[in-house]
């Protein structure tokens, strides 16, 4: 199943195209292609990521047309007559954004990290962790498999803050993926110089996943020794100004965090021009200084999703793997029904995936990728969600 619906270009103004999807019209920025009215494209996150032939588009649209409207009806039914906070949030999500649910692939290409964050299993002081790095060829080939074989149209390239991947390696990686396997390329590589991010934008990257973790300055300095919270926020702002789609957010349940902190973190996330909210529960890792603390109750994370949705009706809100880890049977479903409308599926080769040990017992770490895709799509269909991302800005 493709994670996007092809749309027909009906209007072009400068580098912004208006795209028709079953009578709905959306806008997308076109940075990569020469397009004319009547062409068919795939868009992700408000960017045109691929041009497709009319024949290919019509084949996909034929499959989607009836299914898309059936799913809409299921979603509408589940969002009616809300009675509590999460149901209200789900109703807001349905009213503002419909049943589209972003499904991105995530490729974790290195678990080396130069930082010593108290909450993270990848911290440099964790001498028990077997470290790995994928070389550029392997990263490009894995990304190509995810895009061409598994049909992802957006891909997060994630690592610890690993300086072995210097400017040349990162630029080569992005350029080769963009050329071989057109998709929305999202970087999750930590705090790097803004000038490097600007070069990676020119190479073809368009998104950045960079969480600020907590907006409480004292708590931030405690959790990330030697780091300045202002520098993190300033970098996120600069990347937004440079044109990147921003995906950011915070941890829920850090020791010392208050409910007031969480509300401020929701507001801070929104203030950064965020395309996708990314927040999840703190899960203690046994090889960190926070090993003796407990995770928050899953209800706290679900209520945070709901509050973020109500406060920011048109936002994309990611249901994180950490939430799913707290409840492997129902966590993903509960997050989506609390107002979430985005998720990620791990496409990292299995041998490496087990070693990307941010927190213990991650959901899906041992799963077959195709089986996990199948079970995720089945879940989405059961609650009326179309696993698609058809851009931003509904045209009146």
Q: Which fold name fills CATH's third level, the topology?
A: TIM Barrel
Going by helix content, strand content and strand pairing, the class is alpha/beta
Low-pLDDT runs: 391-396
Order of helices and strands: EEEEEHHEHEHEHEHHEEHEEHEHHEHHE
CATH architecture: Alpha-Beta Barrel
Q: Main beta sheet, described?
A: 8 strands, parallel
What can you see in these coordinates?
With 396 residues, the chain is α/β, with parallel strands linked by helices. 39% of the residues lie in helices and 19% in strands. It has a single domain (96-390), classed as Aldolase class I (TIM Barrel). The strands form three sheets. It has an eight-stranded parallel beta sheet. A six-stranded antiparallel beta sheet has the order 5-4-1-2-3-16. A two-stranded parallel ribbon has the order 11-13.
């Amino acid at each position: 199943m493709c994670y996007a619906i092809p749309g027909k270009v009906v209007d072009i103004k400068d580098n912004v195209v208006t795209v028709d999807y079953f009578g709905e019209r959306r806008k997308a920025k076109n940075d990569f292609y020469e397009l004319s009215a009547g062409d068919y494209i795939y868009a992700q996150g408000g960017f045109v990521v691929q041009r497709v032939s009319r024949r290919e588009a019509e084949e996909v649209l034929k499959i989607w047309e009836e299914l898309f409207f059936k799913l809409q009806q299921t979603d509408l039914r589940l969002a009616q007559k809300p009675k509590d906070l999460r149901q209200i949030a789900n109703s807001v999500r349905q009213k503002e954004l419909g049943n589209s649910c972003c499904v991105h692939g995530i490729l974790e290409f290195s678990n080396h990290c130069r930082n010593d964050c108290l909450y993270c299993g990848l911290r440099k002081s964790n001498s028990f962790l077997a470290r790995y790095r994928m070389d550029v060829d392997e990263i490009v080939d894995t990304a190509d498999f995810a895009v061409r074989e598994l049909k992802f149209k957006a891909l997060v390239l994630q690592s610890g803050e690993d300086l072995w991947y210097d400017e040349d390696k990162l630029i080569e990686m992005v350029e080769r993926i963009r050329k071989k396997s057109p998709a929305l390329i999202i970087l999750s590589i930590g705090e790097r110089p803004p000038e490097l991010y600007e070069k990676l934008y020119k190479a073809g990257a368009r998104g950045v996943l960079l969480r600020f973790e907590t907006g409480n300055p004292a708590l931030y300095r405690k959790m990330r020794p030697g780091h300045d919270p202002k520098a993190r926020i300033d970098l996120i702002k600069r990347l937004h100004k440079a044109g990147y789609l921003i995906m950011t957010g915070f941890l829920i349940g850090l020791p010392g965090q208050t409910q007031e902190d969480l509300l401020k973190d929701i507001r801070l996330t929104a203030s950064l021009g965020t395309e996708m909210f990314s927040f999840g529960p703190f899960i203690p890792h046994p090889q960190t200084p926070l090993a003796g603390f407990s995770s928050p109750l899953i209800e706290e994370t679900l209520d945070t999703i709901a509050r973020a949705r109500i406060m920011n009706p048109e936002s994309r809100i990611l249901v994180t793997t950490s939430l799913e880890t707290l409840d492997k049977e129902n966590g993903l479903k509960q997050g989506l029904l609390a107002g979430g409308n985005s998720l990620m599926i791990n496409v990292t080769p299995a041998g490496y995936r087990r070693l990307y040990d941010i927190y213990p017992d991650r959901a899906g770490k041992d799963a077959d990728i195709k089986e996990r895709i199948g079970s995720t799509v089945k879940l989405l269909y059961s609650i009326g969600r179309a696993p698609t991302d058809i851009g931003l800005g509904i045209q009146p």
